[in-house]
Amino acid sequence: MRYVNFIIFVFLCFFLVLFCSTAWGMNQKEEIFPGTDKNTLGLKELLTIGIHEAVKLVGVEDGFYKNEEIKIPLPEKLRKVDSFLRKFGAKEVSETLIKKMNRAAEQAAPLALDIFIKAIKNITFDDVLALLSGKENAATEFLESNTSETLKSTFYPIVKNTMEEIKALKAYNDYMGKYSSNPLVRSMGLDLDISKYVTDKAIDGLFIMVAKEEKKIRQDPAARVTDLLKIVFGKTNKSDQ
User: Is residue 220 helix, strand or coil?
Assistant: First the structure.
């Protein structure tokens, strides 16, 4: 009986050692082969923090209007004739339209936060390793290429409502109405959806700001404000070592 118990004890020890070795091997594999949940969550956390910071910066008065990097100009069609029209009294109307478009983007930006967060939550990264060790805006570029059109279509009605509330649409109609008889304006076409234009520019601007935050997190250890970011991006940035 003692011999049987001894055999059972030996087998239990053997399986315990085997189990521990397997668990240790899995942990080692997680460190050696990025692409695990930890790294995926790290990328999503980077983008989530990035969009929060972006909205904080642009979702205030002059957040777009006084940021030359993302300021929304007149649509390209109108820019082609605007300098000419300004000579005939269009300056005030033109500047009003530009300011109203940017104000719409500033007021709508905080409402884009939930749309971005949902997109980040649902995104599946094709190659986590490439994004972790890639260029300074690799994760933002990946998010943009995979979600941009969906984000814009979802954000469009929000921007359109904001444009109506702050009379940006009226400013556009005033601009077009005042100069619609001008041959140059007619040649540009009057079928532009100004709300869609502002939507596209607002989303593009947000991506630019998220990319700046991503760069900061990758390059500056102080910007890694969570333990997960410290672990994931501390491993990939050799300059920290």
Answer: coil
The candidate with the shortest Cα–Cα distance to 116, out of 227, 218, 210, 228, is 210
pLDDT block averages, 10 residues each, the chain of length 241? 45 40 35 60 95 97 98 87 71 89 97 95 90 93 95 96 96 79 63 91 98 95 91 69 44
Its sign, for the CA torsion 201, 205, 208, 214, is negative
pTM to 2 decimals?
0.80
Enter the tokens of residue 38: 């930890």
The answer for residues whose C-beta is within 8 angstroms of residue 176's C-beta and 6 or more apart is 185, 190
Report the distance separating Cα 65 and Cα 60, nearest Å. 10
Residue boundaries of the structural domains of the chain: 1-32, 37-240
Compute the C-alpha angle 119/121/127, nearest 5°.
90
* 3-class DSSP string for 206-226: HHHHHHHHHHHHHHCHHHCCC
CB count within 10 Å of CB 29 equals 10
Q: What is the DSSP string of 36-78?
A: SHHHHHHHHHHHHHHHHHHHHHHSSTTTTTT-TTT-----HHH
